Amino acid sequence: MDTLPFRVATPVELEQLGPAGLRDKLAGPPQLALPWLGGAAVAGHLDAQMVLGQWFLAGHGDARDPVQAFAWFKHAAHAGHAGAANLAGRCYENGWGTAPDARAAAHWYTLAAERGSDWGMYNLATALVLGRGVVADRRAALRWYQRAAALGHAKSLNILGGFHEDGWEVAQDPARAVAYYRQAAEGGDFRGQFNYARMLALAGREAEAQQWIRRVPQTATGPFIDKMLAFLGDAPQQALQRLYAHASVAAQAATVVQTAQPAPEAAAAAGTQRGIRSRGSPPST
Predict the structure, then answer these.
(1) Among 13, 94, 97, 257, which residue's Cβ finds the most Cβ atoms within 10 Å?
(2) Which one of 2.60.40.420, 1.25.40.10, 1.20.1300.10, 2.60.40.730 gives the CATH number of domain 152-285?
């Protein structure tokens, strides 16, 4: 953290630029923004410290440095930054720049959640469901998912749909489950889009279901798409089997588009990736 592999704007330059000018610089091309981002981080701006950590974690050119990323996240987190605390937890969970430590991950997720981070709430809740680094407690997990969902967190909305569909810590309520899945789908969560499409198809609203299932491959991970196709293809319900055809075509189209584009640089995901839900079981990794 003491030295950065690029020129850093001086305090005088930052003062002359001003807050509005700094925002404009940081919104520009990454290579041009780096001196200003680094200068702001060194000067103690917590948001800049978190973003700089993400820059090192994602890796641009030869600059990927998970150890530096972890150090910046911890620095900002110790100063009270909620998002950085969540990312410190992600580093501990995944072994980015430090040894994997589930208990430490849960500790930082707790701090992030208590400071108001929706991703921290989601990640803490998931740790509580899975008993990862903490004693498993689905009731406590439900409360944190609810708090994140109240902030509009799409992945948490999808998980709440699962709680209400399967009756985890709440009475089974298919109508409420559908409402949560719809909110998650509209919020852009591909798992929510899949679950909403699935419920629509089973309710006989197949035209709407087909529209939603076509959206899933646009943002879903490859492993999720494989699981989705296997689930739909093996489903005993004819409505889900018919949905399979539309999902398969959309998946093939998405693969063609992705192949034609340059591979994107790795990004530091704020949250965790969960697989297709199975009834009566927690979200799988």
Answers:
(1) 97
(2) 1.25.40.10
